[in-house]
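Minutes, project huddle
Topic: does the predicted pose make sense with cytidine-5'-triphosphate bound?
PN asked that the exact inputs be recorded in the minutes so nobody has to dig through chat later. Recorded below.
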Amino acid sequence: MLAGKRILLIVGGGIAAYKVPELVRALRSAGAGVTPVLTPAGSRFVTPLTLAALAGEAVRSELFDLDAEARMGHIELSRAADLVVIAPATADLMARMATGQADDLASTLLLATDKPVLIAPAMNVRMWEHPATRRNLATLLADGVRVVGPNPGEMACGEWGPGRMAEPAEIRAAIETCLGGGPLAGRHVIVTSGPTREPIDPVRYIANRSSGAQGAAIGRALAHLGARVTFVTGPAAVPPPPGVTVVPVETAAEMKAAVEAALPADAAVLAAAVADWRVAEASAGKIKKDGSGRTPRLDLVENPDILAGLAQRSGGRPRLVVGFAAETGDVAENAAAKRRRKGCDWIVANDVRPETGIMGGTENAVMLITPEGAESWPRMGKDAVARRLAERIAAALA
Ligand code: CTP
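Predicted holo structure (tokens), as shared on screen:
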């Protein structure tokens, strides 16, 4: 998995940097090339000589180092790697990444790279739990940055709690997952997400309140486990996750065509809030008020059911088809009936009554309906729901 891969390793300034030489040695002995970048603070904890000797390569530390730039410019450096790893990732480095600063070599590389980024945070427990760090972490996760650790334990400062950098063996395992060695490596999963828009005329449409947040989190979680993800998305309020193939669509008909074009797939997770109806004949020109006070009539026709169509395919059906159910009544019963009616394997059901705040919110309380029955999951963040679902999908496809 690691043989022939190149890792750009940014070493931040924390006591945990003492574990980095061991990580470099493990990566090198697995056949990976390591390009070390030492921040000025990092060089207080580990010497350039140690890193250079273990990596077998010169250490980069200055943005404006003419000699080093002449050998390889920093933009090229940020792209020549297969993966960028930051260990230890200090609170300061995380904050600078989250705000997109580029005033030294490490931050500039992080802003310029088009490769996946993995961070191994390490800091005092209070710094880790500070709302500012939580905010920065949420931003980094939303940007697609992957995180390993920190682990709970005794800290160098004498306090106890989460903040210790993950062990080199854990970081190495996370690197392998990032490089495609996860449990879904080699699997193709189609995800639909967001609302659809059904035109009334060139300026108006029928849509719904879906933000696409749950679908994006699912796409990200599946990609983190190594899946190749085709992400078919209507016009969502949140950006699509990095590391997936994005297919933007607008209407239900376009979404259906995009899903079919993406086959074959091992699994499909249809999280989109597809509009059930479209206007029978959208007007080619903008519908005008005619001054009579009469209101226009909209004739609606039902959209094709993408989920039922996929689940009931005779040939080329994905092995696992997962639907969603947005319910406002008896969630378990309605969702179980929906599962049978549509022919999908699982349904992730959620209660979208306005008082739950789920539609458009950051949390979700779902029930997973399988042929074996219904499981209630505790209320948790949409990212946590996505990770749990992705793990279940990985287990089902194993
Ligand atoms: N779905 C779909 N195509 C449609 C409508 C829905 O693929 N035209 C999918 C959604 O992506 C979701 C599931 O079907 O995975 C359930 O959608 P939901 O709106 O909750 O249920 P409906 O089928 O519309 O049933 P009802 O509105 O009667 O509850």
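Observations noted during the meeting:
- The domain at 188-284+292-397 is CATH 3.40.50.10300 (Rossmann fold).
- The chain is about 35% helix and 25% strand.
No decisions taken; revisit at the next huddle.
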